[in-house]
Amino acid sequence: MISIPSLDDERVAPYRWVADPRRLEHEGLFVAEGRLIVPRLLAASARPGHWAGSAHSLLLSPSALEHMRPLLEAHPQVPAYVVPQAVMNELVGFNIHRGCLALGRRPVTPALEHTDLSHATRIIALEGVNNPDNIGGIFRSAAAFNADFVALGPACADPLYRKSIRTSIGATLDVPYAQAEPWPQALDQLKRAGFRVIALTTAATATPLQRLTAEHARIALLAGAEGTGLSDLALAAADERVTIPMSGRVDSLNVGTALAIALYHVSLS
Questions:
Q1: N or C terminus: which one in the chain shows less Cβ crowding within 10 Å?
Q2: What confidence score (pLDDT) does residue 147 get?
Q3: Residue 30, SS3?
């Protein structure tokens, strides 16, 4: 726990990039924000595996320091820089109202073709989901309903973008994911691995979700961006198309909501 006397202290220089995700990514860093998420980063960093050693440092206000002192004492290898709240806000460029930030080192995102899915039974595949709030919500639902994995197709938002992590309540640090390229050929890889690829669509001709049964032990739920939905190529690569029946007062659901409903359904089967 290190008191920082000046905004010019080089030890906290990377925190000037918190509002600049491209610079952070270029430097191999990401931001975890808040008193619920920072502990998840520290825990993941302390475990063997993909996230081992990923916690770079913490930036805390004095009040956050007192709240989190027992946690910090359990992770003495991670430097915690303490600054007044006003100094923190000036350093990062906006109000950090809970006074708690951390930087993490980005691990390399694996390619789907190099990922071991032998123990997975429920996964999510995404195409063009470029809204970080939706990505975060999808990872949160994946954790809630015990999905094993997320395959990120083209034009998906970064799971380690600050808003993605915050919306997921840290689930992007828990649910494994990989880049699914080339697309949509990556869906064929899932099928060869024994997954039945189920595309979520609003098409009236699709099978109602409640009729989807557990005849296949391994299911990959495929979803696309709101508005555009799944591409014709992705739909053609799916084994089955499923829709969630609605009242007719709206024509579609948020993609994160739709996946949460579908994940709940398949988690019961």
A1: C
A2: 97
A3: strand
Domain segments of the chain as ranges = 2-105, 112-268
* Burial call 57-88: b when 16+ CB within 10 Å, e when fewer: bbbbbeebbeebeebbeebeebebbbbebebb
Class of domain 112-268 as given by CATH: alpha beta
Backbone torsions φ then ψ of 106, nearest 5 degrees: -70, 120
Structure tokens at 167: 């919306």
Res 214: pLDDT? 67
Ranges in the chain, pLDDT < 50: none
Tell me what pLDDT residue 248 has.
86
Kindly report the CA angle at 14 between 11 and 19, in degrees rounded to 5? 145
What phi and psi, each to the nearest 5 degrees, are found at residue 17? -100, 10
Specify whether the CB–CB gap between 229 and 201 falls below 8 A. Answer: yes
Residues pairing with 59 in the sheet: 81, 101
| Residue 13: per-residue pLDDT | 95
Cis peptide before 184 (omega within 30 of 0): yes
Spatial strand order of the sheet with 177-179 comes to 177-179, 149-152, 122-127, 219-224, 196-200, 240-243, 207-208
CB atoms within 10 A of CB 5: 8
Is residue 55 within 8 Å of residue 45, measured between CB atoms?
Answer: yes
Nearest to 198 by CA among 252, 249, 269, 254: 269
CATH classification code of 2-105: 3.30.1330.30
Q: How far is the CA of 24 from the CAs of 12, 102, 183, 195, in angstroms?
A: 13, 12, 27, 36
With contact defined as beta carbons under 8 Å apart, do 29 and 165 qualify?
no
